[in-house]
Amino acid sequence: MTGLYKLEDPLAQTYDVIVVGSGATGGWAAKQMAEAGLKVALLEAGRAVSPKEFTEHMPAYKLKYRDHSPEIARTRPVQKQCYACMEYNYEWFVNDLENPYSTPQGKPFTWQRLRILGGRSLVWGRQSYRMSDSDFKAASRDGYGDDWPISYADVAPYYDIVEKYVGITGAAEGNEMLPDGQFLPPMKMSCGEILMRDRVKAKFGRTVTIGRAAVLTQNHNGRLGCHYCGPCERGCSTFSYFSSPFTTVKDAMASGNCTLITNAVVSHVDMDNATNKARGVTYVDRLNRQVKEVKGRSVILCAQALESTRILLNSSTQEYPNGLANSSGTLGHYLMDHVVGGGASGKLPDLKGKADANEPQRPNGIYIPRFRNTPTSGKSSRFIRGYGYQGGADMDFNFGAEGYGTQFKNAVKEGVYQISMGAFGESLARWDNYVEIDKELKDAWGVPALRISMTHGDNETALMEDAAAQAAEMLEATGAKDIKLQANVEMPGMAIHELGTARMGNDPKKSVLNSFNQTHDVKNLFVMDGASFVSSACQNPTLSMMAITVRACANLIDRFHKSDI
Amino acid sequence: MKRRELLKAGAFAGAVAALRPPIAQGQDGKVNAELTPAQSGVDASNDLVAPGWKPKFLDEHQNETLIVLSDLIIPATDTPGAKEALVNRYIDLVLAAEKPELQKSFLNSLSFIDGEAMRRYKTAFRYLTRQDQDDLLHGLAYPQTNSGWTGETASTDPGHTHFEFLKQRIAAAYYSSQIGEKELGWDGAFGHGPYKGCEHAEGSHK
Predict the structure, then answer these.
(1) Whether residues A404 and A436 fall in one domain
(2) A95: nearest CA in chain B?
(3) Which of A43, A235, A257, B152, CA to CA, is 20 to 30 A from B133?
(4) Of B45, B73, B189, which is closest to A404 when you measure between CB atoms?
């Protein structure tokens, strides 16, 4: 990432747009605005990242502790709860000692984050699903909560733009809950998955489809197709999965209109009280702790849902004593994270074969879209909304084989055909799930930290119980044996799908943002990330976050052209 | 379970908080505190082979007992076993960095095996004949039931629990070693794509 800095002082000029955060949505905002000819400053709290750091082709035996490094436990006790935080790559994740947050007694919340160019797009799960009007207009259908101020038709053209650029592998299904998109060829299913697909369709009429993922199944947009090595979260030497540094941010830089400022820990938005407009942001240099200001005609926060809200809460002024752009009082409220912990696993002894260490590793699984409380399914008596499953079936080494000695050694190699599915359930938007500033706690740069208060409720519990029972029924129908149920409600944060806290809406008294992610209170201030979500749906949210960002950017570019900013 | 998931499955969570952090050092000798050793290109695969190796955590008897036990659980056949894979050295390294409660539970399980050997044969496990070691382990290797007719699981079976705990750690150490990867048939290459999936004719799976 050399040569990205311009020679002149990047802080001397006034930018058209300041984008805070370089992850999935920040990369898009920088690309769209810069390619439209506007001068952009892209601020990232962490350092730049290089492909030289990728470790996806390093075998475990080269690691000193083979993924049990005491350094992870020492500096990343929260981050290590994330499956992707490993001895290979833990330095990409924040150091928990430098980045604290608090939770009330009895309300644990795990906040898994990266501060590095690209943010969590470096390690994300890549699953990419559209939302439908059953999600955008859910409140009208079941009476709970609020509708989004936008509908599927508003977002659909932007889903198209994002999917065509990113490259999403998947299969069209015509499912009422899961709109089809612009797909690259689908990945193949295993024998066990085809068995499940056909039997579940026959017995329950439900769809089992191959996962839709931001992984290239053919060369696309200057990037190579996947080589199926498996561990995407350690980086990809062929850039086959979507991450912002090597796609959107690269494009933004190539336009010549984007200045990247790394190691910029943004503390707050600076306001011009006379005009009620943002005039820039203040940041602390991560390395030398110097406080600096960047000036801009507009500010877009893409810092990650809770980080963007933290910045607004830390930007209070006399006019906005409870957080900037918070005349509604809703800033920080309606925090959501998909509920996980329900599902089932088993074995398919009828499928023969042998485990193969040289089998290509498919970085994707199968998906079962929501089938509860749909327009055609009728209403559940126990819960509203629903869940979708991710899962998979494959022949694998039988490390759980019984006994010991030569017999055990052989049994491991013989393998066992495993099948499993785990649900992601909708997390209802509730006022009493919220974040606020902890007045006693600051991070290593002196920026006041968040206090996060969230619990899953009775509806989420009922969703996971149902998801466990339905998974068992579908595995039974597939012919699985030795079925094990999982009907837990994992602690909030475990889905790593934090959403809400600066919701959009048509009523400025009940929401922070309008339908174009512009704050109701401050005309040139925007939040373009998961904070804007009104409801969580049950689909993995990143694709929708990117589409909503591109839509909001189109509107902002239009405002610049009309000098309406 | 995928090979890489096995690494996580050992549940060796936690470590001594006061331990000094290892500093990432690249092959060029430069130190970068913001990269993991792996990201800096450090290859630790020969660390355990060092001449004059001594255990950091286990005492000599515990170490020798672990060698004997691991050799029984994953013996050399036409391929090398746990002893050749230096499973004891890896387990000792991880134990040395673990929290006291995890260290204690490992030693409890190891001394349970020795305790059973003393109770039955008045001899420590490592000094038993191969036949006696085998007889002892067979009594622990399978879960007990209260009823042979219904297969009802016994309410407590500490022997089997201790055995499984040790076996899982030995297996995780073995299959994550270079010898273990070869045992599974891995050719050392990353990327054998594309994923082929089911190659049977449509409708073969009913």
Answers:
(1) no
(2) B34
(3) B152
(4) B73
